[in-house]
User: Fold this.
Amino acid sequence: MLAFIGLGGPEFLVIFLFFYITPIPPLWAIFKKSGQNPWFSLLLLLPGIGILIALYILAYSNWRIEK
Assistant:
């Protein structure tokens, strides 16, 4: 299917990495400001379920707000 729209190997890899890696720094900052371990943002590297686990941690944990 990707060959049909003109995307070969290198182009697909760049687009895939852009959408796969780009959300990690903002989520790192959110975890850090909420008082959680920022390394939880690397859960996004787990395909499919990683974002669900990260959102679950953010939604149901106690936030220690910086002053």
The chain has a mean pLDDT of 83. Residues 23-67 form one domain. The longest helix spans residues 9-21.
